[in-house]
Write a structure and sequence with these properties.
alpha+beta; four-stranded antiparallel β-sheet; 9 helices; 9 strands
Length: 260
C-alpha cells in the first residue's frame, strides 16, 4: 500500500528537496523527473544534490514532446515555422511551463538548432502553458503529446512534429523532427523512482525487483502507453550511470545556450 504525498511547486523542486531529507529507511520514495534531477540544479539553488542526496531504484518511463502552434499562426509545417521565425526574429513566442524544465529547455534547443529567435512566455506549470496557447496568448508550445492530443484532435492546436526518434503511436500522422531534417532535439523526458542516499543496497535491490515485475503487467504497460509513456526499467547501478550522463548532458546544454 502506498500513500501519495503531493508536494507541488517550483517545477517539482519543493517535493524533491523534501524527499532528499526523508529517513533513509526505504519507506519514503520519490517519483523523480528529468527537470528536477538533471536540469534545475545547474541554474538555481534547489536544496539538494541529485547525485549525492539520492540513490536510484529504477527508471519507470520516458516520453517525448509534440511541437504545436495556435491555429491563428499562419504555419502548418516546421519549415514554415522556421521561415516565419527568421523573418520576424523575437516576435513569435512559445509557452514555457516552468523555467529549467523540458517545456523550457526543449524549445531553447530547437531555437539553437534552427537558428531562430522565439521569445519565451513563462507560466506556472504545464497546464497553464497549454491554456496560454489555447487562448492565443502564446503561439508555440513543446508539450506532452497526451496533454495536447485532445486539442490536436479538435483542431484547437495544429501539431507540426514530435521530438521522438520514431512517430508516436498516439498520432501517427505527425512527423518527427528528424524526418523533417531537424536533428538534436530528441531529448526525452523521463521519470524514475529514487530514494534518500543512505537507503541500503538490499532495500533498493528489492524495490527494483518488484518494479520489474510490475513493468511486465499488461494493464500497467497499457496504462502508461495510453499516456504516451514508454515503460522502462533500470537497475540501481544502471540508473546511477544514466543520471550522471543526463546531469552532465543538460549541464552542457545549459552552458552552451548561456542560460545559467
Amino acid at each position: 500500500q502506498f500513500i501519495v504525498e503531493n508536494r507541488p511547486g517550483a517545477g517539482g523542486i519543493i517535493g524533491t528537496a523534501q524527499a532528499a531529507k526523508a529517513p533513509p529507511d526505504g519507506y519514503t520514495l520519490h517519483l523523480g523527473f528529468v527537470g528536477q534531477l538533471a536540469m534545475s540544479p545547474h541554474v538555481e539553488k534547489v536544496g539538494y544534490d541529485p547525485l549525492k542526496d539520492f540513490t536510484g531504484v529504477s527508471l519507470l518511463a520516458s516520453s517525448y514532446h509534440v511541437l504545436a502552434v495556435h491555429p491563428s499562426l499562419p504555419v502548418r509545417s516546421v519549415k514554415q515555422l522556421i521561415t516565419l521565425a527568421k523573418a520576424h526574429p523575437g516576435e513569435l513566442n512559445y509557452a514555457s511551463g516552468n523555467i529549467w524544465t523540458p517545456t523550457h529547455l526543449v524549445p531553447e534547443l530547437f531555437k539553437s538548432v534552427t537558428g531562430t529567435n522565439i521569445a519565451a512566455i513563462q507560466y506556472k506549470g504545464a497546464a497553464p502553458s497549454a491554456v496560454g496557447v489555447l487562448s492565443g496568448e502564446a503561439q508555440v508550445i513543446f508539450g506532452s503529446i497526451t496533454a495536447l492530443l485532445p486539442y490536436m484532435r479538435s483542431q484547437r492546436l495544429a501539431a507540426l512534429a514530435v521530438t521522438s526518434p520514431a512517430r508516436s503511436p498516439l498520432a501517427q500522422e505527425v512527423p518527427t523532427l528528424v524526418e523533417l531534417g531537424v536533428r538534436g532535439v530528441e531529448a526525452p523526458s523521463w521519470y524514475a523512482i529514487v530514494a534518500p542516499a543512505a537507503v541500503p543496497g538490499e532495500v533498493t535491490g528489492r524495490l527494483y525487483a518488484e518494479i520489474v515485475k510490475v513493468n511486465e503487467l499488461p494493464d500497467y504497460r497499457g496504462l502508461l502507453e495510453k499516456q504516451g509513456l514508454e515503460p522502462v526499467t533500470s537497475s540501481p547501478a544502471e540508473f546511477a550511470k544514466f543520471l550522471q550522463a543526463e546531469y552532465d548532458k543538460w549541464g552542457g546544454v545549459i552552458k552552451a545556450l548561456k542560460l545559467h
